[in-house]
Task: inverse folding
């Protein structure tokens, strides 16, 4: 997949509803170190909430396939006043999230580097087992209501390129959800794409998620410069994949 | 052509759709170990909750914590449609949310904003596209109330769950004071307000 700087994040109505960078660690951190990190980051994220039963699933090469490697743990969600910037800290996980309005990749990655440097100074070196970038997009399609009819039909395949192929005998759908998993050779990463219909927050619209999750679990980089380089490379791949998941009709809507 | 049908009366299409849930996990604990691995692989097919949507604990909360949780939920809802709001609109809405949930002014008998009411407000705002920003308040049940006041004329809307709006207008028309009220869906709101000149309320003079 040719990577691209493209228009993906530069649309005036960018459909990004959450951008996430996630880093999983090999070993658990003690509560004291997590609290120290919260204290340092509090000036950027003044609001702190506890998350119980935070489930972290890590696929480790050679792991016993019969043991589901998930366990409930406690995490902390830190957020800004307007709730657009969020981080989640737990013993084995750091996730870094941006809600709309999306400020652009440069601003997003600079904020990540700022917070990552704070964590590195407190935590020191910790072996990374997974680095991932996830962009959740929502495509909102206006529909024309048909007077006198309780239901309206939307031809979603005119707007998105990833959806289930079904026989006519089961049409029309009330909803769908599908996931694909594949490998991106150019960045040596796994790609997970979720496409689903969702309730629209807008009146007279049908909404569809295109959720792109690109991650490296096999020998992820450990040095800061290599981590950032990988994130930049993943971002270009993500842009190309997103562009291939939408039609020109969608581009015209979000331009 | 493959189509999707929008049936608004479909009860199982909730906002927190089943795509975020992991029903397989509850079954896995009862399965033999070889099946648990199968369950784990199925779990990987689930769409994982994003950081912003992770549920936070809500036990033994102080008033300030309750109010923060309510306004935080509302702000996250607003972020979902931020691409359709101006920065000015967003800023004003957030300032008003914080103001009406000021812990120093809070009455313990009041209820903080209901997410479902705020969702209706956002939908209505995007449909009406008012240039004038309304004043905001809360009903006793936690429904958002918006008011446009021009001189002695007043339009008030209470945003209810389920895309319903209760509105009251008091307006001087041809020298006579006229009052009207209604309880309608958002899709009917514009039509119901037509006799009362929406541009009078929503357009900057």
Result:
């Amino acid at each position: 997949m040719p990577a691209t700087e493209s228009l993906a994040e530069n649309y005036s109505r960018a459909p990004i509803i959450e951008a996430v960078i996630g880093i999983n660690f090999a070993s658990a951190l003690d509560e004291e170190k997590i609290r120290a990190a919260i204290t340092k980051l509090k000036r950027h994220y003044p609001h702190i909430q506890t998350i119980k039963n935070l489930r972290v699933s890590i696929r480790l090469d050679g792991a016993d396939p019969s043991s589901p490697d998930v366990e409930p743990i406690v995490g902390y969600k830190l957020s800004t006043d307007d709730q657009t910037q969020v981080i989640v800290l737990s013993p084995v996980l750091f996730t870094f999230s941006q809600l709309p309005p999306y400020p652009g990749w440069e601003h997003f990655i600079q904020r990540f580097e700022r917070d990552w440097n704070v964590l590195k100074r407190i935590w020191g070196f910790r072996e990374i087992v997974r680095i991932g970038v996830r962009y959740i997009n929502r495509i909102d399609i206006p529909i024309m209501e048909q007077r006198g009819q309780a239901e309206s039909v939307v031809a979603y395949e005119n707007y998105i390129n990833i959806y289930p192929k079904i026989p006519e005998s089961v049409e029309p759908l009330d909803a769908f959800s599908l996931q694909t998993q594949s490998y991106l050779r150019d960045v040596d990463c796994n790609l997970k794409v979720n496409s689903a219909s969702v309730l629209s927050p807008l009146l007279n619209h049908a909404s569809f998620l295109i959720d792109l999750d690109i991650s490296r679990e096999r020998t992820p980089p450990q040095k800061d410069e290599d981590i950032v380089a990988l994130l930049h490379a993943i971002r270009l791949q993500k842009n190309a994949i997103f562009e291939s998941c939408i039609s020109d009709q969608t581009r015209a809507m979000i331009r | 052509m493959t189509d999707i049908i929008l049936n608004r009366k479909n009860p199982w299409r909730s906002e927190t759709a089943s795509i975020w849930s992991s029903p397989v996990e509850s079954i896995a604990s009862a399965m033999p170990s070889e099946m648990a691995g199968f369950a784990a692989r199925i779990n990987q097919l689930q769409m994982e909750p994003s950081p912003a949507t992770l549920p936070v604990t809500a036990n033994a909360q102080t008033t300030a914590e309750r109010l923060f949780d309510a306004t935080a939920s509302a702000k996250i809802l607003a972020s979902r449609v931020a691409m359709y709001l101006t920065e000015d609109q967003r800023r004003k809405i957030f300032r008003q949310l914080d103001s009406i949930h000021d812990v120093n002014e809070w009455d313990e008998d009041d209820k903080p904003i209901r997410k479902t009411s705020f969702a209706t407000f956002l939908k209505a705002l995007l449909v009406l596209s008012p240039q004038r920003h309304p004043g905001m308040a809360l009903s006793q049940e936690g429904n958002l109330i918006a008011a446009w006041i021009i001189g002695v004329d007043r339009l008030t809307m209470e945003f209810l769950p389920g895309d319903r709006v209760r509105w009251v207008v008091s307006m001087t028309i041809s020298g006579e004071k006229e009052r009207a009220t209604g309880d309608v869906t958002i899709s009917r709101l514009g039509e119901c307000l037509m006799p009362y000149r929406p541009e009078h309320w929503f357009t900057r003079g």
Notes: DSSP finds seven helices and six strands in chain B. Chain B touches chain A through 61 residues (CB under 8 Å).
